[in-house]
Amino acid sequence: MTIAEIFAGESKNVEFKEDLSEKSIKYMKSVVAFANGTGGKIIFGVADKTREVVGFGKEDVFKKIDAIANAVSDSCEPAIIPDVTAQTIDGKTVIVLEVSEGRQRPYYIKALGRENGVYVRVAGTTRLADEYMMKELLFEGSNRHFDQGLCTGLSITDEEIEELCKAMKAQAIKNAHSDEQKESIKDVCRQQLRSWGILIERDGKDYPANAFAILTGCGELHVATQCGVFKGTTKEVFVDRREYDGPLWKQIEEAYQFVLRNIHLGATFEGVYRQDVYEIPPDAIRELIINAMVHRSYLDHGTIQVAIYDDRLEITSPGKLPMGQTIERMKEGYSKIRNEALAYAFSYMNLIEHWGSGIPRIIGKVKAAGLRAPEFIGGDVDLRINIYRNQNAANNATNNANINANGTNGGVNVLATKEQEQVKNLLDAIEQNPSATQAYYAEQIGVSKRTVSRIFVSLQEKGILMQNGTKRKSNWVIRK
Question: End of a domain among 92, 111, 141?
Fold first, then answer.
């Protein structure tokens, strides 16, 4: 430790104690919390409120070091072996108790037992672990993945297994980047699902793992994505809210389209060709949602939350960062897979590419769009990622509405009108489901049925939209 680090104050991984308390349990809670987290240090000889370096007399230091080492050895289960040293700071001797990240979780205080003695660090404070955190620590300590565990209370049929295999292949083809990649996609079979941990074979019969229930949206696991638009920069005033459930790939697409409908759409022009440009790169939005789906904790009963404010897009993923992962390492591309079965499934479906490459790629795309780097917050109980919107977009909307009809404006970025956004969103919805009703489309793009009907008439008059089939059974065709 240095005097500069002392002046920085206590943090998630640093705690000050002016002296050893008579009851070692007062600081032993922090010892087990550090072992259950990413490690940390307790500095004895520094006042926690004033940050004054008090220090100890040389004749007492080694006695106190022995007392600390013995207290940790006697009080914690499984055994924690700390590094206890004396250091000189500002001419005074302090004692530094350093605890490394533990692998035999959960660590607890023997005298309190496992039920009442497991502590964790949350936002720089030491807290008693709740039921969710206990389960998370148990899975980490046994090197198991929740998504590969048996899903109790859910029975599946051969038809349901076959349906999942077909749906996954359809998604893989849909998300392929080239014809060559499409042609290389192979069928998914039962054996493949077993090897990934989506199915569990026992006595010649297949049972669903939690991953099966999560992927398909079946069973008692409530897996949903909440989306909302808020006025201002807080959650005080709702403008719109939706909750999506069902198969994960369906939730990804619906949340993605929700964001696109509610951020600014602009355009650039090269000659007579118009190129739509969103204020936040769509690829970055989609990858953030996918990243949240595959890396969130499904032990936590919370939902992924996608919130759009006037100044930012905010995506919150339930659950603390997995053991061995930090925000800094994540930004550098270090991957720590929490849900191994889902990661295999997402990789097959071309939803993720190389493990660990998603976050650095998102950061690069956002910065390339001229926006500030994404902000990463939390990691103790959940992870929140903010992408700040282009603050000039709203201010330019009125000015750009007056640009000439052909919209050329020298190739400068031009915001589309509200009606243009509605038309584009409607065409996207029709392309995804060409046989739906106008009421369905109105709900999907967040406008009234009357507005959809008016747009339909306009598109048909211009020859952009045609109807095939009979009135009882028809589908819409978009003429490119």
Answer: 141
Give me 334's structure tokens: 């270090």
47 pLDDT above the threshold of 80: yes
Say whether both 293 and 406 belong to one domain. yes
First vs last Cα of the chain: how many Å apart?
66
What would the DSSP string read from start to end of 341-405? Answer: HHHHHHHHTTS--STT-HHHHHHHHHHHTTPPPPEEEE-SSEEEEEEE--HHHHHHHHHHTTS-T
Q: Which residue has the tokens 């509405």?
A: 401
Domain holding 301, by residue range, is: 225-414
106 & 84 share domain: yes
How do residues 131-147 score in pLDDT, each as one tens digit? Answer: 999 999 999 999 999 99
Q: Phi and psi of 128, rounded to 5°?
A: -70, 130
Which helix (H) or strand (E) segment holds residue 254: the answer is: helix 248-261
The answer on 265 and 182 residing in a single domain is no
Q: Which pLDDT band holds residue 407 (cuts at 50, 70, 90)?
A: very low
Residue 404 is predicted with a pLDDT of 33
d(CA 10, CA 33) in angstroms, rounded, equals 15
- What are the E-state strand segments in 73-174? 76-77, 83-89, 92-99, 108-109, 119-122, 125-128
Same domain, 353 and 445: no
Is residue 134 located within the same domain as residue 275? no
Is 296's pLDDT higher than 70?
Answer: yes
| Same domain membership, residue 195 and residue 104 | no
The token pair at 27 is 């600081």
Q: CA-CA distance, 81 to 95, in Å (whole number)?
A: 16
Query: Which is nearest to 383 in space by CA: 311, 282, 305?
Result: 305
Report the alpha-carbon angle 301-303-309, nearest 5: 150
Q: Are residues 369 and 277 in the same domain?
A: yes
252 & 398 share domain: yes
Domain boundary among 391, 414, 437: 414
H/E run at residue 425: helix 418-432
**Which of 44-53, 244-253, 303-312, 417-426 has the least mean pLDDT?**
417-426
Please report how the helices 282-295 and 358-368 are oriented relative to each other, as an axis angle in degrees rounded to 10.
160
Give the CATH number for residue 438.
1.10.10.10
pLDDT band at residue 170 using 50, 70 and 90 as cut-offs: very high
Instruction: Kindly state the tokens that stand for 54.
Output: 């008090």
Overall number of domains in the chain: 4
Q: What is the pTM of this model?
A: 0.76
Give the per-residue pLDDT at 299.
94
